[in-house]
Specification:
single chain, about 400 residues, alpha/beta, FAD/NAD(P)-binding domain, Enolase-like, domain 1, 3 domains, 5-stranded parallel beta sheet, 10 helices, 26 strands, about 30% strand, globular
Length: about 400
Amino acid sequence: MAGVVVIGAGQAGASLVAKLRNDGYAGAITLIGNEAVPPYQRPPLSKKYLLGEMALERLYLRPESYYAEAGIDLRLGSHVTGIDRAAHEIVIGDERLEYEHLVLATGSLPRRLPAAIGGDLGGVHVVRTLTDVDAMAPGFVAGARVLIVGGGYIGLEAAAVAAARGMQVVLVEMAERILQRVAAQETSDYFRALHARYGVDIREGVGLERLLGDAQVRGARLSDGTEMDVDMVIVGVGIVPDTRLAEAAGLAIDNGIAVDGQGRTSDPAIWAVGDCASFPHQAGRLRLESVPNAIDMAECVAGNILGKAQDYVPKPWFWSDQYDVKLQIAGLSAGYDRIVTRDGGEAVSFWYYCGDRLLAVDAMNDPRAYMVGKRLIDAGKTADPMIVADAGADLKPLLQR
């Protein structure tokens, strides 16, 4: 009963199997997940779900009944231990499952603190899975002291939720500024000021030396010599692509599982999608960590399994919710040489340029700027900086140029 077997029941894997069925694939489809629950949304986990504003069932991407109704064999709580490329089989415990097409949608793994500095103490958490969030939820009580390690979007979102709960929040970032790897100084300044208004103590250029405690974390020593008492630690220092199965199977690895323009790995019977996959982009390779990429790439590969032979063309966009601010990002800012600011008071956006070319837009509570910027970037067009900088100017005419 060889058909399509998908390892990884996250956003990418779930999107791919649904697209296959919707587009008429009549063969066997198996979706394998190592968690005990059906495929679910990750972004609300550390926000509405953690705050008790979203029930578990509302996290599910589709009702659990959908998979059986669509003829998709959903295997939960299953761990694939190997890939036999010669036999076109995967290994799950004592079972072997044959495939015609194998799709790796293994996602990514959160970076953790080394055990040598207390990373294995109780009360030290990462934010990735439902189990992670359920484990930290009891500690989110007013007055509790939380240390957040890492000033990227994961750390800042965790800080916002903790502050909303009335916790005492300290966030440390080793780099000179928060968001240094992913955003301009202007965006960093905006979010630093936002968190300060909610009482978050952000310390930049300061790292964690070690956590203190026996079995349970009780304190922390920072790189500047400061010691503090803490009740909980949240680690948000990035993620790495989960390439373990691919590496063991001898597939090519290059900042993730290397695929060609259509999503094939170095083995033509095996594909990879989502966080775990790097694909050709401009003169190099790109790996995107986002929900939109997971969906778009999965649907492209589903089409290619059906014979469409289309290259994946990413249209990068991202978002982050912190307090009452919705950040929407269009494009990729790498290589920018200047920022144009559009300040409308409550609505603010920063536009990234390289020379005269528009690369990206960070829009805070400014959906119109985001929408116009995204459409321009997707179309390969630019925007007159003089018009962008004038908060009173209508941006829509830029789309007609």
